[in-house]
Specification:
With about 280 residues, the protein is an alpha+beta fold. It folds into two domains: about 90 residues, 3-Layer(aba) Sandwich (Rossmann fold), CATH 3.40.50.10330; about 170 residues, Tumour Suppressor Smad4 (Sandwich). It is built from seven helices and 13 strands. α1 packs parallel to α2 and α5 packs across α6. The longest helix has 14 residues.
Length: about 280
């Protein structure tokens, strides 16, 4: 059944809630990371462990699908995967601190995410990409990212990994990942899988533009962990601190935090997804 077409940003949540109320056990979302994240949030928030998320990639980044093993440009394969119906239980992240979407700036809420939250350079690239024309997908991210390597001023932040160690200072960016890829295919968390029971924080210290460019080239190949300007942390929860309530990316959508400190934690195997191969979960 075609349950509906979104009428604007965030309308996926309304459609997902309606499908949940009417008892559907698989909700298929056509789109990209933001669309899938909105639907997954409602499924997890409902507490319905019998409901699965199905995805058909048609968005800009499609990184959550890429992390599951979908080819972002192969619609026929995605339909075949849905028809086969293999289910995989995956981890989900949650930002415990209330935040608001830029589309509903007064509605602050706790939100789940399926792939990543990003701060600093990540937001600068998203803002620049919105101003770009005639580009999409991976090429759009790469070109706008190269531009911002020479323009973004950096960001002051701190990360508490819950082990008694706090890392802070001036940074180019911070990502907290559930999966391996972001930005249309960058392996920002090379060792991450969607069911490893951990979140993966990648802190990249600020640097001069040419050093930033070298780091960008390393990150494109997943080789950035070798740099002394990169710190990778693997824990089930983090506390992130900033000088002011930050804007941040959640699965491709921009949000604004209500406070200058954010608590992020993992919910192990909290979502079932129709995914390539493997036994049903």
């Amino acid at each position: 059944m075609n349950f509906g077409t979104t009428e604007g940003p965030g309308h996926e949540q309304v459609l997902a809630d309606r499908a949940l109320d009417e008892g559907y056990d698989v909700i298929v979302a056509v789109g990209g990371d933001g669309t899938w994240s909105n639907v997954a949030d409602r499924i997890v928030a409902s507490g319905r462990e019998d409901v699965a998320l199905g995805i058909l990639p048609s968005g800009t980044g499609n990184d959550f699908g890429r992390n599951l093993g979908f080819h972002p440009a192969d619609a026929a394969e995605a339909v075949r995967i849905l028809a086969e119906g293999h289910l995989r239980a995956v981890d989900v992240g949650r930002v415990e601190t209330p935040s608001a979407s830029e589309h509903e700036p007064e509605r602050f809420e706790t939100r789940h995410f399926v792939n990543l939250v990003g701060f600093g350079f990540d937001i600068a690239v998203i803002d620049a990409a919105r101003r770009a024309r005639f580009l999409t997908g991976e090429l759009l991210y790469k070109l706008t990212a190269l531009q911002q390597l020479f323009r973004f001023p950096g960001i002051d932040l701190g990360v508490d990994d819950g082990t008694g160690s706090v890392r802070d200072g001036r940074h180019l960016m911070l990502t907290v990942s559930n999966g391996q890829y972001f930005g249309g295919g960058f392996p920002i968390a090379p060792d991450a899988t969607l069911d490893d029971g951990k979140l993966h924080a990648c802190m990249i210290a600020d640097a001069a533009p040419l050093t930033r460019l070298r780091l960008f080239n390393l990150a494109e190949k997943g080789r950035h962990p070798a740099s002394d300007r990169v710190t990778l942390l693997h824990e089930p929860r983090f506390r992130l601190t900033f000088d002011a309530p930050p804007r941040f990316e959640m699965d491709g959508d921009v949000r604004r935090a209500a406070e200058d400190a954010l608590d992020v934690r993992l919910l192990p195997r909290a979502l079932r997804v129709v995914a390539p191969g493997g036994p049903s979960a």
